[in-house]
Amino acid sequence: MESNYACPPPRKGNMITILSIDGGGVKGIIPATFLSFLESKLQDLDGSNARIANYFDVIAGTSTGGLITAMLATPSLSNAKQPCYEAKDIVPFYLKHCPHIFPCRTGFFGWLCKIVRIIKLIIGPKYNGKYLHKIINDLLGETRVKETLTNIVIPTYDVKCVKPTIFSTFKARSNTLMDARLADVCIGTSAAPTVLPAHYFETVDYHTGATRSFNIIDGGLVANNPTLVAMSEITKQIRLRSKEFPETKPLDYHRYLVISLGTGLPEQDIKFDALHVAKWGIFQWLGRHYTMPLLHMFLHASSDMTDSHVANLFKSIGCSDQLLRIQDHDIPIASVSADLTTEKNLEGLVTIGENLLHRPLSKDDCKINHVRPVPKDSCTLTYADLLTRFAKLLSDERKLRLQNIELDARVLANHER
């Protein structure tokens, strides 16, 4: 069944579908692993041309999640109805380019580089971002936010305005000055403080001559987990009576189907306690072991609060089975860093994603996802099983929308006769 829509509008179906991807630098490999599996299941159901963008009304991403969002939703130059990247190609993309974005040397030169970076941290960002800017510009070109295959939402923070700036397809369609180059948005949302430089760019309304400037840093300062931001953007569209969305109350979340993908939390026994933290000064907070504790704690606190709010919301309305959050709460300390690009660490992140996908859900995982544990201490289900179930829900929803579009076309054709 063919359609001109990448994702048929939700007013033609029963659900409003959201995909959300956390920030986390090179740890974007972990959710990319889940996305590859999900897309393969959608292809099993609907054919080899099925893509993630065909099934979600909104894809939201912060920082590295923003880049993945763009890869999933930016039209290909060779086929405007298909994205420039399949989900299965995102992990290889990270493995190829991350060592150049965050260069990491070993041996004597490795220690020398560490000393240089420590000095650079005092006077500027750890990395200059030139390689990242180049590959993002090469990848996304002049594509604008409103040109994506499905609606996207990418949080950023404007240091000059001192407030969040949320880029979305919805805003870009109604406000030319928010229709930025997708490359600029992705560079900006990835500009983690102390790690990569802030990004400046301008947009122009060629009809009026008006301009707007942006001074952007990492969207993780706004929402490292952008699920609530995506839901809020949809709520605004419903309130504005957008033709794209069904006629429903703005706060009617019974229709929402949400998949939210995290980038991993450190194992319990390496988390710092008050006795250690009480003795820390500025350098310990900004750089210790493989990570920057202050930034790390801030970002994950933001993600956890969003987890809690969304889970409680879905539970309160009796729709917990329409929310899937995948987050590994037990990754090794060496994998916590957002910029450690040794071959061992990158391959380790792939393994973390694959292991979590196929590992039986723990008692805590079952509780978070409202799955009844069987037997006593474990659940026979895996996240692969849950993603397979959600793939079927997404497939059925898309088929329903396409059928309704075809039915409307027939009714219109008969009426014109």
Question: Features of this protein?
Answer:
single chain, 417 residues, alpha/beta, Cytosolic phospholipase A2 catalytic domain, eight-stranded mixed sheet, two-stranded antiparallel ribbon, 15 helices, 10 strands, PNPLA_dom, phospholipase activity, hydrolase, Patatin
Notes on the structure:
There is one protein chain. The protein is of the alpha/beta class. The chain has a single domain, classed as Cytosolic phospholipase A2 catalytic domain (3-Layer(aba) Sandwich), CATH 3.40.1090.10. It is 45% helix and 13% strand. The chain contains 15 helices and ten strands. Strand 5 and strand 6 form a beta hairpin. Helix 1 runs antiparallel to helix 3. The longest helix has 34 residues. InterPro entries: Acyl_Trfase/lysoPLipase (IPR016035), PNPLA_dom (IPR002641).
Q: Count helical runs.
A: 15
Class derived from helix and strand content: alpha/beta
Number of strands: 10
Provide the helix percentage.
40-55%
Q: For the record, what is the CATH homologous superfamily label?
A: Cytosolic phospholipase A2 catalytic domain
From N to C, what is the helix and strand string? EHEHHHHEEHHEEHHEHHHEHEHEH
User: Any guess at the CATH architecture?
Assistant: 3-Layer(aba) Sandwich
- Number of structurally distinct domains: 1
Poorly predicted sequence stretches spanning 5 or more consecutive residues: none
Beta-strand fraction estimate = 5-15%
